[in-house]
Amino acid sequence: MQAIEQQGSAGQDGQIAKAAFEALPQRSILQNVSVRETAATIVVVLLLIGAMEVASWYVPDYIMPAPVAISRAMARLAATDYTHVLVTLARLAAALSFSLVVGVLLGLIMGVSPLLRPFIRSLVIIDTGIPALSWILLAVFWFKNPETRIFFILVMILVPFYTLSIYDGIRALPKDLVDMIESFRPSQLQTLRYLVIPHIVPYILLTTKSVIGYATRMVIFAELVASAVGVGSRMGLAQSTFHIDEVLAWTFFLVVLNITLQLLVTGIEKLVLGWRPEATVR
Amino acid sequence: MNAINPAELASAVRDPVISLQGVRKQFGSHRVIDNLSFDVREGELVTLLGRTGAGKTTVLNLIMGTTRPDAGGVTVAGYDPFRQFKQLKGRLAVSFQTDRLLPWRTAVENAELGLLILGEDRATAREKASQWLARVNLGGAEDKYPHELSGGMRQRVSLARALAVDPKLILLDESFSQLDHITSQGLRKDFCSVARDFGKTCLMVTHRIEDAIEMADRVIVLGQGAHIVLEMPLAAARCDEGLRNDCRSRIEAALGG
Questions:
Q1: Which chain A residues contact residue B64 at CB under 8 A?
Q2: Residue range B203-231: average pLDDT?
Q3: Angle at Cα A14 formed by Cα A12 and Cα A19, nearest 5°?
């Protein structure tokens, strides 16, 4: 095999680009986290703690306990109720994973099958119109097992988010790229593997990022109504026994959990979508 | 121009890789192609030249098999490209006007795409793709993502992707027209060198006379309705400035400018 003669613009092109690559700064995920944003978050948290402290001076403990009392409750719950946290997290992980798989599959079917598309779309639109509360109440009537109830509630709420997002992703598939891959005469499976699935990954991650906070709230709500185990049920118990410090401790934990989950998804996003150039608008 | 060139004579007796016979295609009431016939023989580099709306892209789509003719026949490597779409797997590759690289794949991963679709194992595909990138002067840029490459480099990756599957026929759809003059010139030279070294049959669609004169063995100029208004050999013109100017004038006249 004969190499092409290196000359003219081609050689220069390569040299310039090589130099440009070497000059590119290597950024880690940690370096990407803005220092200013972190500082602002700390300031807001401190202000909120201060406000709670001041409020606790003027109202009884069962309305607003002092931050020290809340932190004591947190330490107590961390020692005794961590299994409830694990149960809640397991429920969230199971329902989110299942919803992701089913939602992505339904979205793919909607995207590639004009025959099935109207049926799935109708189902999804009807589902999105049903309030979360209706699913919770129906689940209590329909299922005896609390795990089934919670799983059912979360799946019914989360699947449409994934389905519609993936369908939108497939619709946004650039025709240029479809024509390009078609020119190699691939099988349907190869088109899915090399084009469609990599293209929808950002949509999956974006949807997960969007619904994770909502899913956490829903699992807590479902546990409050439909189960005796889990963070939601413990919050219900704390409320009924007038332990407002525990309610606030659980609330603080849920905020931290939500931020942690968001950071986790963002980390996965940066890892999986490392190929994406970061655009900045001035 | 009337002297018989031995290369042209040899080309004339080879089997046609592309054959269009009495092809007609219309969209609604608008007849885009009316009774078009031409052949492209093995190892030939033919340019299809025409103004915007002359039906060049439709001709290319017919050859690619993404659309079917209303009348007449199209064969590519002996197959009907529309009805026997899958039969042309590995026999035909296309280089488009824009690079059409997958943004989530590096240069080498883009270049190996066709090979993976053909069923090559990953290691062999990677090796071949790297070799082709080196051949188009992109050695060292294998692990760069498309957004890290210049327009010319991206187009080179696109050419490497098309060439890597070792196709019998390469279709070029205005592949050099979006690049600046110097980059385009370098790329044209590199492409012709590879195409001739490996005996590839090429059909290039373009609206740029310069592309045709510098690259093609033969030019077909299409007028409205894809009627052939001029067809002439160009191989000899590449080495003779006077002949080249004469060809340019004839093509300009045929294009009506």
A1: 183
A2: 85
A3: 95
pLDDT of residue B5 exceeding 80, the answer is no
Q: Does some domain include residue A21?
A: no
Give Cα B164 to chain centroid, integer Å: 15
Could you tell me which CATH number the domain at B27-91+169-257 has? 3.40.50.300
Under the banding of pLDDT at 50, 70 and 90, the label for residue B191 is confident
Q: What CATH number corresponds to the domain at position A210?
A: 1.10.3720.10
CA distances from A220 to A85, A125, A147 (A): 11, 25, 13
| Contact yes or no for B96 and A176 at CB 8 A | yes
**pLDDT for the residue A17:** 46
State whether residue B82 sits within 8 Å of chain A by CB.
no
Q: Exposure of B84 by Cβ count < 10 A (0-12 exposed, 13-18 middle, 19+ buried)?
A: middle
Q: Which of A13, A24, A177, A199 should one mutate to test binding to chain B, selecting the residue with the greatest count of B CBs within 10 A?
A: A13
Domain ranges of chain B: 27-91+169-257, 102-166
Residues 128-187 of A with CB under 8 A from B: 176-177, 179-186
Residue-wise over B62-71: b if at least 16 C-beta within 10 A, else e? bbbbebebee
Q: Is the dihedral of CA A61, A67, A71, A77 positive or negative?
A: positive
* Residue B113 to residue A184, Cβ atoms within 8 A: yes
Tell me what pLDDT residue B12 has: 54
Query: Residues of B with CB below 8 A from A276's CB?
Result: 103-104
Residue A209 forms part of a structural domain = yes
Chain B positions in Cβ-Cβ contact with residue A194 (cut-off 8 Å):
102, 113, 116-117
Global ipTM: 0.85
What are the 10-residue block averages of pLDDT along chain A, 282 residues in total?
40 48 50 75 91 93 90 92 94 96 96 93 93 91 92 95 95 93 93 95 93 92 89 93 92 91 90 79 68
For residue B152, the chain A residue with the least C-alpha distance is A13
Q: Domain residues for A85?
A: 61-272
Instruction: Tell me the pLDDT tens digit for each residue of B86-132.
Output: 899 989 999 998 899 999 999 999 999 999 999 999 999 999 999 99
Size of interface A-B (CB pairs under 8 A): 112
Write out residues 145-204 of B within 8 Å (CB-CB) of A.
145, 147-150, 152-153, 156, 165, 182-183, 185-187, 189-190, 193-194, 197
Cross-chain residue pair A14–B117, CB shorter than 8 Å: no
Give the integer Cα–Cα distance in Å for B150 and B146.
8
Number of domains composing chain A: 1
If you average pLDDT over residues B14-26, what whole number do you get? Answer: 88
Residue A121 within a domain: yes
A169 contacts A110 by C-beta, under 8 angstroms: no
Q: What are the two backbone dihedrals, phi and then psi, of residue B119, each rounded to the nearest 5 degrees?
A: 100, 10
The pTM for the full model equals: 0.79
For residue A259, being part of any structural domain is answered with yes
